[in-house]
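Shipment paperwork, digital attachment
Item: protein structure file
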Amino acid sequence: MTMAGNLRKVTGLGKAGGLRKVAQLGRRRRRVDLSHPVRSPLGSSVVNCVTYLDGVRTPEGGDPVDVVARMRKRAAGFVWLGLHEPTDQEFAGVAELFDLHPLAVEDAIEAHQRPKVERYGETLFAVFKTVCYLEHEELTATSEVVSTGEIMVFVGQDFVITVRHGRHGSLGPLREELESDPAQLAKGPSAVLHAIADHVVDDFLTVVDSVQADVDHVETEVFAENGARIDPGRIYQLKRELLELRRAVVPLSRPLEELATRPFRVVDPEIQAYFRDVSDHLLRAVEQIAAFDELLNSILQAHLARVTVAQNEDMRKITAWAAIVAVPTMVCGVYGMNFDHMPELRWRYGYGLVIGVIAVACLALHRGFRRNGWL
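Attachment content:
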């Protein structure tokens, strides 16, 4: 089967439309915004198909099938094919054309993978978790703070294929930034891989800074005057969202270390130094997340301690008032026994004296409790 025929399988529409219709739509909408909740503004999983020669985007357009064919024919440059949540049928032609390994293809389609880097023959397959901070007016026990997605990257000698899952993590701005630096882009597909890794890690740092604001807010409320009344579910929810962020950030350390130190044929040696820089930035995010987790544990323990102290204070107040109320209760109980020989019952000043004794005893107890901090 010819190369053009293979790529026409991408959308499963063949000559009836397929990538040619996508290309026409792409020319009308030059700027693609994948933050939209639908799969792709272009109407299919194919977001863009662009070729680069010496770091410069080639002006040739038209059918993506022909674009890839011309790039392969001149044996120079590389193609960047972007997809968004493709189905099995849509990805079948791409997998066959670029000789992608079935296991990597399965991971790219199904998503929900841990960050990793794997080598299949001459192709490098990388998985990155993307994160996005969800704005909220007030943190509650059910608030979503972090949303995650995925970017899978296939890197070969003359191609880069990006497969994105989720409603955020658009690579459109990244593509424009790369095209403004032809010297870096001229280093080949590995330059795109580095740019994606750097973009993902920068998003990690942005989200971490936003989460820090939530942690600081919760900490301030816990140590406020009425901190014992805060719902602990808010702290648990923030810990759960922090765990989601940790699952996206921490596992990426090993893949970035491999990209920075392990030799790969498709990775330019000069690019490996850039991966070391990205790894350093990731380490900062990992350390901050670990610090947040420890701080939230301390905040939770402090909150529980404050609740215990507040309960003890309430119990002391209840006990003090019970002791004060016990004085008139005891005296009235004595005079309510109805014995015949109780001389105070017929004494003219007996009632006033008893009331005075009760008042003096209650005031003395109240003063003593106040002096000891019970009231």
